[in-house]
Amino acid sequence: MKKMIYISVFIILAATAILVLFLLSRGSSAEESKADISTESISDKVADSASDKNSQSSSDENDESSSDENGTSSTNQSDDNGSFDPRSYAERYRKTVESQKYIIHALGGMNGTDKYINSIDPLRLIYAEGYRLFEADVSFTSDGKLVLAHSGRDNIWTKSDWEDRLGQDFPFESESGSESESVTAYDKHLCSYDTFMNFKIQKKYKATSFKELVIFMAEHDDMFVMIDGGERSYQDTKTFYSAILEETREALDELYIESTSSEENNMLNDVLGRMVVGGQTIEMLNAVKEVYDFPLINFYYNSNDKREGELCKPIDFIHYCDDNGVSSFSVSKDVYDQITAEELEKSTLMSFVFTVNDPAEEARIKAYGADIIGTDFLWDKQE
């Protein structure tokens, strides 16, 4: 009997041991399985994270590829729809010239006496009268900001610029003399941007920054503005048009602060596409083209004694313009005599003759074949 009891106890203990071993084995397998699952999940997350980083890196590289070395958006590309086409601006420009009688000199004269105002005040009024072609003088202040003001060669403000055009006292003892407290650039007789913006031009009109002109152009997309930077050296021309480009971009960034980069880029191209730019010499035109691919280039036809040798004859001037993508030329009424006009008007270039304020003189110049008369006051004499 005892023997049977001992056998039963042994069997029970053995069974219990086997059961314990079985359970331990199951637990170990579960832990290994759980560890495998956990490891797999971490691997997936690492792979996903790496994928996200690669995707972001690729996106960043794409963004960088559309930026210039200064980190600003490239301005000479079309948008996704290819809407920026320089040729379209040439077509719009020509159609506008065909529809207009005048280009308004220095943004417009007032009262038959006030000229070289370069202020947004007459611009608003004359635009409302239906005019869409304007010319504006642009120059630097002493602290390197662009304003609407006439200047001499390489941005010098002469005594006449101060007194006759700005309507301010000349703040120097002489044109080569010492400066007053309010003027901070002795060599070029300039004032600071803040000083300029506090002027009343000719005691009546708002002093206007270049950025204000840009904003007006952005809000009125059917107008064209001829930029007159005066006579400049090659390097000074590059500096000038680089500032034109940068301040245009800055003005639009401020105006369209909530726009996408693509929308701002299209607006930048549009405003720059409606600026008629250029200069008085071949080196000025070369400098302009190095800064930006402006679609509308204007070349000033100078007097015989100032015109470059390779442009000596009108036909040489025409050939140069045809070979270098020039859209139009401007010329002084004193240079545009009948013989010169006959030669120049044989080309397809659009012609602008400045500055005419007498109706009889206007009729004579139009008879010579000029496309557009540049005027201060004739716009106000139309019925």
DSSP helix fraction: 40-55%
- Which structural class do you get from the secondary structure elements? alpha/beta
Task: Provide mean pLDDT, rounded.
Answer: 83
H/E element sequence: HHEHEEEHHEEHEHHEHEHEHEHE
Largest sheet: 8 strands, parallel
Strand order of the largest sheet: 1-12-11-10-9-8-7-2
Which radius of gyration do the C-alpha atoms yield? 36 Å
Work out the helix count.
Answer: 12
Distance between the termini: 140 Å
Percent range for β-strand residues: 5-15%
Record field, number of beta strands: 12
Q: Which geometry do the CA atoms define? A: globular
Uncertain runs: 26-82
Structural summary, described in words:
With 383 residues, the protein is an alpha/beta fold. It has helices at residues 2-65, 86-99, 120-128, 159-166, 193-197, 210-219, 234-255, 261-273, 282-291, 314-323, 338-344, 359-368, and strands at residues 102-104, 133-137, 139-140, 146-147, 200-201, 205-206, 224-228, 275-279, 297-301, 328-332, 350-354, 372-375. The strands form three sheets. It has an eight-stranded parallel β-sheet with strand order 1-12-11-10-9-8-7-2. Helix 7 runs parallel beside helix 9 (282-291). The termini are far apart. Mean pLDDT is 83; it is low at 26-82.
